Amino acid sequence: MTDAFTELLSEYLDEELSPAERARVERHLQACVSCRDSLEGLRQVIGRAKVLPVDVPPNDLWPGIAARIVGPR
Ligand SMILES: [Zn+2]
After folding, report:
1. pTM of the model
2. I want to staple 17 with a disulfide (CB 3.0 to 4.6 A). Which of 21, 36, 45, 66 is the partner?
3. 13-to-6, 23, 55, 72 alpha-carbon distances in Å
4. Where are the chain's structural domains?
5. Residues with beta carbon < 5 A to ion ligand 1?
6. Strand locations in 1-73, DSSP E?
7. 18 C-alpha vs ligand 1 centroid, how far in Å?
8. Number of alpha carbons in the 13 Å side-chain half-sphere of residue 8
9. CA distance 8 to 11
10. What torsion do the CA atoms of 63, 64, 70, 73 make, to the nearest 10 degrees?
């Protein structure tokens, strides 16, 4: 599930939002389970990105993931 706040979550984590936007996102997070899940997922991705060496090519994974999203026809 995504909504209008989903795309703000990564900026929220990066602290790129204005104070007013942060307050809006925080208020929304208290009401919206799917955004709380998304935020938690983003935090884990960011945490992992810091742990992994920079030279791991994540693009190699993409064809397999894309095939799974599209699914069998
Ligand atoms: Zn939401």
Report:
1. 0.61
2. 21
3. 12, 13, 24, 36
4. 6-70
5. 3, 5, 32, 35
6. none
7. 18
8. 18
9. 5
10. 110
